[in-house]
Structures are given as structure tokens and as C-alpha cells.
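are you around this afternoon, could really use another pair of eyes. what follows is a protein written twice so to speak, once as letters and once as C-alpha cells for the fold. i want to understand how the C-alpha cells follow from the sequence so walk me through it. anything you notice is useful, everything is just below.
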Amino acid sequence: MPTAAPITLGREPLSITDVVAVARDNAPVRLSDDSRKALADGRERVEALASETAPAYGVTTGFGALATRHIAPELRARLQRSLIRSHAAGTGPAVERDVVRALMLLRLHTLASGHTGVRPETAELLAALLNHGITPVVHEYGSLGCSGDLAPLSHVALALMGEGRVLDASGADTDAAAALAAAGLRPFELAAKEGLALINGTDGMTGMLALAIHDLRGLLVTADIAAAMSVEALLGTDRVFASDLQALRPHPGQAAAAANMAALLADSPIVASHRGPDCNRVQDAYSLRCAPQVAGAARDTLAHAEAVAGRELAAAIDNPVVLDDGRVESNGNFHGAPVGYVLDFLAIAVADLGSISERRTDRMLDVARSHGLPAFLADDPGVDSGHMIAQYTQAAIVSELKRLAAPASVDSIPSSAMQEDHVSMGWSAARKLRRAVDGLTGILAIEVLTAARAVDLRAPLRPGPATGAVVAAVREKVAGPGPDRHLAPEIDAATALVADGTVRRAAAGVTPLR
């Protein structure tokens, strides 16, 4: 089952690459020797605290607004068990397997730090679930993104207790106890503080942020490719992408996007065909000319999100937390605001990238603006509709992306009898960003598909080597211009080529891209 190298967990920061390897490629995980010692030291301090008379939140008291109640020693195992059962209150559709594995990895990373006070065997069991491909069923709704992603993580903790539903390594839905037994694992009774330690983190929203960053890195390059193909198709100029022009406004993302577009259009016979004095067009439309400015701003937004994700992937989040000097202190590090803000910020950038892509597609289909292309790129306009409705589909997704760009992080709703009176909604921000990334994939695919058809219709002029390689890759799955065909499968095929990186690799195989 594993297809990637093992990830060793301790106090060292995780990387986005680590998250993707475990979440999607089934990389195995293991605890370092230092981690096992840290776990043992932290557990020793929690057990000492449990034996003291002073109240300690979540160890000798209830939770949230019920934290004022002292819990007798004989009730403390029940306290942890009841916490998980009551907090496993998620509802709605099950979230994706890679999301659940990402949040499991991030929670394990915090446990491995020793700052939570759980027993070493608790961390080892969570690692075993990952390594055996056992994925608890986690639901869409239930997290407010504060005090941790409580409901999603509680469904994971429930599986460690041998309760609830899970997917086994084959993807079959089964009872947690049965899945553990089949893997040779035994559920366990939670000890003091362990239930709280298993659910008090930003792991769900941060896991989804890491996965979105990974996906957007590729989609930003694809956006440059799609834009360059549209410039060719619409007889635009590459002169506006010159490095000295970009240097006048020194945003790094803009420079990278413009450099990509210049490289993609290098040696293009189509571009060269209208460079001479006979060309009477002074400037291209904004959707062509300003493509690096928009895509570049998205790149810079992504860079900021990566910085925030890097800090979060280095964090150990719990409340209370066991410090290296032995203190056990309450804190607010579980609040998801830093993550929620950048999730919302990325959704704005994704919506705008989708919007400018759709504008270029529409321009290629409009006979009044396409500079000689047939209406809607149809074989026989009027009899055939060509890509008319592909643009409708694109526009529908763009409209959805605009709705998804409305921030979730400003919509705090108090909970727990006003004890938790300000929450981040980071989980909700992450869920809508995930949908937005999927939408952008489809939007760019339709632009690539349309631009490839438009470039073919410029024959006998040919595209440049890099964009031509993309057209060739598309033609392996989708036939060239002709009478109307069932279009949905062609859009699906193009979407798969964007999603799996085929479009990006085709262009990068000709010219280096940033």
C-alpha cells in the first residue's frame, strides 16, 4: 500500500510535501526515539498533575463552560470517554480520505512533541491507523475552528476507542472495532487528559490548507499556460511580458508569471505573424495584457499562505499544554484565525484567476472580438454551436467561485454557553477553498480546451513549441476541430489533464517554467 518514503515524527516541523505524502501517497509514519522520550516525560507530568488537589483544566475538571466542576479520580476515565462520544457530533457528507489522513497526521505530529501529555502508546495507535490505511469517517459539518476542529478530530479519537465507522484500506465502510481487529490492533481506554489532547488543534483546517497549497502551485503554472495559449489564439502580443517592463513593478509573483508567458510564447509563428508594421492593434484586452499581474498577485497570496502554513506545521497545539519546564498551562493557541484568514484570502485569489480565465475564453468565442475565428469556434456556425455552452459551464463555475470567496472567518458564532465566545470558522473556510480549487481546475481546463481548438483553427500558422506541446497532449485525449460532438466527456478529459499535471508537464518539457 505505501508508495512514499516513511515520515519520522518528532519536534521537527512537517512540510507540505510530508502532508501530501501521507494524505495521498500513503507514506508510512513512525515516531522518533526523541519523540518517545518526550511523550514519556510529558505523560509523567500529567499523571503527577492528576494526583494533585489543585484544579487542572481537562485533567481534573470538566470542559468548556463546565470547567468549574471538579471531577473525582474514579470518574476521570469516563470524563475522557464521554468527551469523545459527545463531541463526535459531525453530520453531513463524509469528507475526503486525504483530508482525514492529513488531519490525523497533524494531530499525531502534535502528540509526538510531548507537549500534550498523552501516553506513548496513544500516539503509536494513531500512527498504526495511518499505516494500516484505516480512515475514520469524518463529516462535513461540526467544527467552528476554535478549541480545535473538535467534531472532526473526535470522530478520529472515537475510532481509537474502537467505536464509530471507518473506511478500511480497501475503502470499505466498516465498524471501527472490526477494522482494528483485522489489523491486529486493540482499542484502548483513554487516560487523564488524552481525550482533550486528541481533539484540541487546528489540524483539519491546516491539513486542507496544505493540500490546497500543493494543488494551487500546479494550477498557477497551468494558468500561465492557458493564458499564453489564449494570447496566441487571439493574435495577441508577447511584448508586454518583457522582463524590463515587469521590473518597473517589482512584485515577485508578477515577474514569475510574466517570465512563464514569455517563455511559453517564444518562437511562436502565430505571434510572429502579426508583429510587423501592418498590425494596427495597439493594445490587447486586459484579460490578456494583465494576465501576469492577476496571476502574479495570486502567486504572492499563495506565498503568504505558505508562510502561515509553515508556522502552523511547526506548531504543537493543545490546551492545556505541557511545557518543557514541567508547567502545564492553559492557552489560546487552538484558535484558527491565522489559518482561517489565509484560507479565505486564497479563495479570493482563486475566484479572480477563474474570472480572468473565463473572460479570455469568452473572447475566443465572440466573432466580434476573436480576430477572424469562426463564431463559437463552430465548424458550421448556426448548424453547430462549437464551444458556446462550454463557456456557460465555465461562467457557472466562476459564479460559484465568487460566492465561495465570501469570507468565513468573519462569521464568528459564540458557543459553549459563551465560554467560547469568538471562533474562527477556519474549517468552513477550508471546505469552501477545497471546492474552489476543484472549480478552478475545471475553469482552466475549459480555457485550455478552447484555446487548443482556436490555435488549431489558425492553421497553417502553428503555435510555439511549448504551447504546441500542450495542444498535442490535449489531442491525445480530445479530437481537433470538427462538427459538434458530445462535449461533456471532452471537458472531463481536459480537466483530468490539468488535474494530473499533464498540461503542465507538456509545456515544461519544452521550456523551464517557474
Q: What stands out?
A: The beta strands are 7-9, 29-31, 91-94, 135-136, 139-141, 165-167, 173-175, 321-322, 328-329. The domain at 7-201 is CATH 1.10.275.10 (Fumarase C; Chain B, domain 1). The chain has 20 helices and nine strands.
